[in-house]
Structures are given as C-alpha cells and as structure tokens.
Amino acid sequence: MNENLPTTCTVHFEDPNVLNEFILTVTPDEGYWLGGKFKFSVFVTEDYNMAPPKVKCLTKLWHPNINEDGDICLSLLRQTSIDEHGWAPTRRLKDVVWGLNSLFTDLLNFDDPLNIEAAELYKKNRNEFQIKVQEYIVMARGKR
What we know:
single chain; alpha+beta; nucleotide-binding; UBQ-conjugating_AS; UBC core domain-containing protein; UBQ-conjugating_enzyme/RWD; ATP-binding
C-alpha cells in the first residue's frame, strides 16, 4: 500500500497481524495546514468493498470538512451520496487515502461544511481563519 501513497501520507499498522485497522498520517506540504500532522484511524469492515471503511480524524483541527469530534465530510466515505461521488465497490483504500489527503488541498469544501463555524470564519476573514488553523496545529504538536 505504501507504494501508492501520496508523498504527504504514511500508514502505520499498530498491530502487524491486524490488517483491517491502521493509522494514516497526513502531513500537508502546502496550504493552510502546512506544518501540521494529522492522524486518521481507518477501520476496514467485513462489508468492504461493498461498504466504505470507517474513518475518524484523531487530531483535533480547525477544518470546514472535519469537525472537532473527528467526523469527516468526504463523499467517498458515504455509502450513498447525492453528488454521485459516494462509495462504490470499484473504489479501493488508496482512493480513501488520496481523498483524505486532498481534504487539505483540492477537495477542501467551504460551501458544504461539516464545521460551519470554520467555513463562516474563512468566508468572513481568511487571515483569522489561518490564525485559528495554526493555533490548532500548535496545540496538536504539544499533545504528541
């Protein structure tokens, strides 16, 4: 799987005997979250590949598509999606990894936010949004 990862991503299996659970770390190399390190737990259910894996963000961050509880708004993680980009049996784990990575760049969506407050701050004052993003990154570094 490591061969197909973006350069900003790493995968870690906490138990090498349990291949259906792993931690994905995304370290953006551009954009608002540059300098951050964001961990996601990925659990592949028995229903895979008929159903998407369960993904949760473990790092508290300020993001319009990830709330402070770690829930993620990403179409391909939904069994059904109104935009037709939801999960399909033809999708693979690498699609999930690339999708999560893209939440920090080109899939960033301020128009359909999960964290409405973050999206509103971005629209109102991008400078304040950037400051708040960086505050969360600094807090996360302190908890490592």
